[in-house]
Amino acid sequence: MTEANDAPNWGRLYTAMVTPMTEAGGIDVEQAQHLASALLKSGSDGVVVSGTTGESPTLTHEEERVLFRELADVVHDAGGTLIAGTGSNSTATAVDASEQAAKLDVDGLLQVVPYYNKPSQDGLYHHFKAVADAVPETPIMLYNVPGRTGLNMSAQTVVRLAEDCSNIVGVKEASGDLEQIAEIIRTAPPGFRMWSGNDQDNLALLAMGGHGTVSVISHLVGGQLKAMYDAWERGDTAEAGRIHVKLAPLVKAMFLIGNPAPVKWALNDIGFNAGPLRAPLADPDEGIQATIRSALEVAGGQDLI
Asked: What would the mean pLDDT of 268-294 be, rounded to a whole number?
């Protein structure tokens, strides 16, 4: 067993950043830099690049590395943290991608549960341990999202990894299973942190002892989310609850169809050029667009630009 885990200087509020694209369909590095800077100014402690919201299934490994390399200085100059999504359903691919990213100036890695092939819990353990062993000096955030992967990583597997791999420092939990989340928080080693992977669960995780969130809505209301976490830290739970409830319609609107289609459309609609989605994703229909605009009004508008 290792000593207590520690995620150095990893804050509460992270944005799972979209990947801006050009009209020709390539990654738009300049807009990605602009977006990362704007997100940090609006309240995020850091960004997660090339995750689900970043359209990772359609990014090439070279495109991912370009993003990591070109965003590092922008994020660090603003005092933020850059976490690179390097997960895969192939252990060899995840190890290679993680080793390559670790050579760049990233602060940590996001490792998603392998999707489609449905390994056992023991298979999950050995998959993540192989990645952790390959990059022992690089902090890792696990990512459990059964709705995407078709497989839930159990609390026992998370805790086993936290105990055996000191560089596995936390988990982004998007299972929606509050009982499982509570079990991880209760039994994980000291210093191991829990981030919400579902914006609707942000306040519940705080109440149970969770650390923060990797958010989608922070693209649009980062300042308000930061205010919620600030209120919680100073003991004003009523204010934190008020903000969470106010943002609930926006959370719902952002997931009426598969993420990141709603949030990328919303960014373009408010005047930030995030560019098109890559196929097979498509923009929301007019009814969902109207719901998003209404939810933004209820939330008090946006604070990105």
From this structure: 97
